[in-house]
Amino acid sequence: MKKAFKKVLVFIAIVGGIFYTMRYNVTEQNPGHDNRDESSLNEKYKPVNQNNVSKTTKLILVNSEYGLSEGYKPEKLTIPNIPFANGVEQEEKHVESVIVNPLERLFNVAKDEGIVLLGNSGYRSYKSQKETYTNRVKAEGKKLADAYVAKPGFSEHQTGLCMDITNNDRYFVEGTKEADWLAENCHRFGFIIRYPYGKKNITGIEYEPWHIRYVGEEAAKYIYDNNITLEEYLNK
Predict the structure, then answer these.
(1) Rounded to an integer, what distance in angstroms lies between the CA atom of residue 87 and that of residue 167?
(2) What CATH number has the domain bearing residue 206?
(3) Residue 165 sits in the same domain as residue 212
(4) Of 45, 46, 94, 113, which shows the fewest CB atoms inside 10 Å?
(5) Same domain (yes/no): 68, 156
(6) Active-site residue 208, yes or no?
(7) Could you count the other beta carbons within 10 Å of the beta carbon of residue 178?
(8) Are 7 and 72 within one domain?
(9) Looking at the 3D structure of the chain, how many domains does it have?
(10) Which Pfam family is one of those matched by this entry (predicted)?
(11) Annotated active-site residue in 91, 208, 231, 232
């Protein structure tokens, strides 16, 4: 009886060893499978600098830490079919082609809901941003300029993925129906309020209710629902 029991134990041990070996071999053939997936995800949302920019990504991070080279320019700049404020420079009417349709839909839906929006500033080249920053420093001083205007190479406008919005009164602040509508609805079209209230310590820029940035509908919804910034989203 004891011999038979020992034989059963030996048989179980052998079968268990074979099963373990098979699992080990499968794991070895696909080492770190889950880690690769996680790594790919992290890489997808990893902030980029001027030496590592994918021109097609919707999630390029541009702020005081991550900049763009002087020669960086979106692959395809297009003027969207939206109304612009008087006096907008021709260059600033352009945006990266990927945001044209979402931007036009946003403007059209706003109009259908009784909200008149005007485009005020889209793409700006490195050269244009340098002029804007320099003029602001001369007019208001460096401290105030740094609070509202990015240095050349560190402006989202150079990506072509954003648009400053205004209204007929050229008074686009929290509490106006246009600014409130934009804050509550832009995520439906893949945009975010890039510099939200109370987040300067993260974004480096004071609250700008007029500045929307395209990140795609999935990211925009998450950022809106969780009341976070693009920086926080990319580092989650």
Answers:
(1) 13
(2) 3.30.1380.10
(3) yes
(4) 113
(5) yes
(6) yes
(7) 22
(8) no
(9) 2
(10) VanY
(11) 208
CB neighbours of residue 168 within 10 Å: 11
Strand, helix or coil for residue 212: strand
Task: Give the separation between CA 171 and CA 58, rounded to whole angstroms.
Answer: 29
Position of tokens 């036009």? Answer: 104
* Residue showing tokens 């009164």: 169
Angstrom distance (rounded) from CA 77 to CA 73: 9
130 in the same domain as 22: no
Mean pLDDT for the stretch of residues 84-89: 97
Cα distance between residue 184 and residue 192, in whole Å: 10
46 and 25 inside one domain: no
For residues 54-64, average pLDDT: 79
Residue 201: CB partners within 8 Å, gap ≥ 6? none
Distances (CA, A) of 77 to 40, 59, 80, 92, 221: 29, 17, 10, 10, 26
Q: What is the pLDDT of residues 31-56, one digit of tens each?
A: 333 332 323 323 333 334 444 444 44
